Amino acid sequence: MPSSPTPSQVALASAPWATLAKLLETDPSNLRLRAELFERALAAGALDVAASALDGALAIDPLGAELRHRKAVLSMARGDWQGAEAQLQGLINEGQHDPGLRYNLAYTHFALGESALANALLVELMQEQPADLMDQVLTLRLRCLHQEHKLQEGVALYQQFEAQHASASTAGTAALMAVDLGQPALANAWASRALAMNPQQHEALVAKGSVLLGERQGSQALPLLVRAERGHPRDGRTLSALGLAHMLNGNFAEAQMVLHRAVQFMPGHIGTWHAIGWCAIFMRDLAAAQLAFEEAISLDRNFAESQGGLAVTLALRGQAQSARETLRRAEGLPGRSVSADYAAAILGGETQDAERFEKMARRILGAQRDAEGRSLADLILRP
């Protein structure tokens, strides 16, 4: 009696490429079939199936430019950005100038942090106006400008093209740039437009969530940022904003876990270390708070708010002399530190009862701002 098919065999038989794979068994030299199998398997994330189909095609036509382009696309899908960059640049050096090829090279440059190289290619492509690529080209160019902190230029570029190319991705990317430019009304309008077209557009979710957090609307921001995190669980900025949402909602244990995940992906973000420190203070874990503020100070010793946070922690731990020395350092740095004010209040005996402690600590997280107009929330929300 024949054995029943295993679950994996059933899954393979029902895969979107199964019929093509069967046809290819009877016609293994059919390049058109191999190309279609590659595309379907790649779209489904079955990279091994895609690679097998492509290897067979390259064995038949090893110099085919289109096949070698697909090999570079496979490298991109695997996250081998350097390999993809070399493969794509090699094709261009041979005289291949297909817009899709140049766009993919720009994308690999961007993924490697080479925004200037990517932007140069994208400027050329935008001048050519490739109809089937224009939204993607504009989105990637906006992301390059964002990566280079050219926020004004990026917002102006989107406004120039938004009537013709206001896709979910372009609007969402522009919205996040507007957040960083300090234009919450514009950010909210563009994020809302993007989410109306695509409720899962990542930058739009983060932008709208950030605007709500800036207004201290943690409960409204939370579901947006949860959706953003589900789609991009390794994005430090998303995680940092999500942690702040939990903080504003008073869920400090959850906030602390999320914020620790955030600094795994952006360990140099001082605002997130501040948030970790304040979470620990709210949870009365003063040793952990001290470690967080010391980490922030190791990143920038001349940031008054870091020194102020450490002074608060030392004061709460009863280390009055060390707290006063740290407080003097905070007060000697440019800008007023709200945390330093709080440390001075503790050392002055103004926060002995729990209710007053809670009230003053929440001022740090809430609307109280420093000399540059920033609150702790603003520090966390800025990349």
Strand proportion? under 5%
Largest sheet report? none
Structural class: mainly alpha
Q: Uncertain runs with pLDDT below 50, 5 residues or more?
A: 1-14, 367-373
Helical content band: over 70%
Number of helices: 23
Distance N terminus to C terminus?
63 Å
Q: What's the helix-strand series?
A: HHHHHHHHHHHHHHHHHHHHHHH
- As a whole number of angstroms, the C-alpha radius of gyration is 26 Å
Task: Note the overall shape.
Answer: elongated
Count of DSSP strands: 0
**On the 0-100 scale, what is the average pLDDT?**
87
Concise summary:
The chain contains 23 helices and no strands. The N and C termini lie far apart (63 Å). 75% of the residues lie in helices and 0% in strands.
